[in-house]
TrEMBL record:
One of its GO terms (cellular component) is cytoplasm. This is Aldo/keto reductase. The keyword GTP-binding does not apply. Pfam families: Aldo_ket_red. SUPFAM superfamilies: NAD(P)-linked oxidoreductase. Transmembrane segments: none annotated. Residues 15-307 form the NADP-dependent oxidoreductase domain. Keywords: Oxidoreductase.
Length: 329
């Protein structure tokens, strides 16, 4: 397994990480035994980075990860946890709370659910408009000093917020969507990260399945959160699937899958970029490991740019209201 460093002086982790959210939330039911088997296979193949959130499945994901990691040496698993999102008993989404006392309280429960004494990386899942980012990061810095957290990250934060947070405590990574279909961070956010020596934890590298090469028009309206995503609707979907087919031609030339090309493209964007692969089944891991072995030449990258121009992707990555809340693009 290839490795990449987190931040300027941080630890090395596997070049790809396993995003565990889908095992508990948002993509429909997942089979518990298969989810655990998927984590085990990732471990066997050298994956050390596991990404979760205390609100994924309302605690279910952390408990699942604890079960799957039993018997694994603690130092062999780098666990990144997102926090701050509020859920209702029926699973609804009811806001966020990044106040210092809320952050510290949430970590107490996370440590119990994961059965560990510390978290490798802790991050607010979103920027809370009602709480200064300096206060949130200050609380997390207290947790670092107390030994409960090793590193601090951010998620879906703009360049200005990254600078403010980094001024309080070194930020090790920013987690944000980045793929051939989501390149908005290239204008300002990515240059800021590189100026400050902050890594990029890239999620959504397959654009929630669009870049898997397996999505079809017939799946439009599939009952999960993609039903409300503009990229999966009507003419937007038609245009995006046409881009996927153009990418497929390149994949066939390289004797690779569309997903392998898409993941490999993210990997080639810099040694400071660490793709997260969302998987619920062992079969979902195959493309990730294939991408690690794939080498894209400069000529390949030029072909990909021509096949999938950033300005030809139709529809935003989230619904309009959610995009407004993010405030990053």
């Amino acid at each position: 397994m290839k490795t990449r460093k987190i931040g300027t002086n941080g630890p090395e982790v596997s070049a790809i990480g396993l995003g565990c959210m889908g095992m508990s939330d948002l993509y429909g039911n997942a089979e518990r035994a298969e989810s655990i088997a998927t984590i085990h296979e990732a471990l066997e193949k050298g994956v050390t980075l596991f990404d979760t959130g205390d609100f994924y499945g309302v605690g279910h994901n952390e408990l699942l990860l604890r079960e799957a990691l039993q018997g694994t040496k603690r130092e062999n698993a780098f666990i990144a946890v997102k926090t701050g999102v509020l859920r209702s008993p029926d699973g609804g989404w009811i806001g966020m709370d990044n106040r210092p006392q809320a952050i510290k309280n949430a970590l107490a429960y996370t440590l119990q659910r994961l059965g560990t004494d510390y978290i490798d990386l802790y991050q607010p899942a979103r920027v809370d408009p009602n709480v200064l980012i300096e206060e949130t990061i200050g609380a997390m810095s207290d947790l670092v000093k107390a030994g409960y957290v090793k590193h601090i990250g951010l998620s879906e934060a703009n360049a200005e917020t990254v600078r403010k947070a980094h001024g309080v405590h070194p930020i090790s990574w920013l987690q944000i969507e980045y793929s051939l279909f989501s390149r908005g961070i290239e204008a300002e956010i990515l240059p800021t990260l590189r100026e400050l020596g902050i890594s990029l934890s890239a999620y959504g590298v397959l654009s929630r399945g669009l870049l898997s090469g397996k999505w079809t028009k017939e799946r439009q309206g599939q009952i999960d959160f993609r039903s409300f995503a503009p990229r999966f609707m009507g003419e937007n979907l038609d245009q995006n699937l046409a881009l996927v087919e153009a990418l497929r031609e390149i994949a066939e030339e390289k004797q690779a899958t569309v997903a392998e090309i898409a993941i490999s493209w993210v990997l080639t964007q810099g040694e400071d970029v660490i793709p997260l692969i969302g998987a619920r089944k062992r079969t979902h891991l195959a493309d990730a490991f294939g991408a690690l072995a794939l080498e894209l030449s400069s000529a390949d990258l030029e072909k990909i740019e021509r096949a999938v121009p950033a300005d030809k992707v139709a529809g935003t990555r989230y619904a309009k209201e959610q995009m407004a809340m993010l405030g990053v693009e």
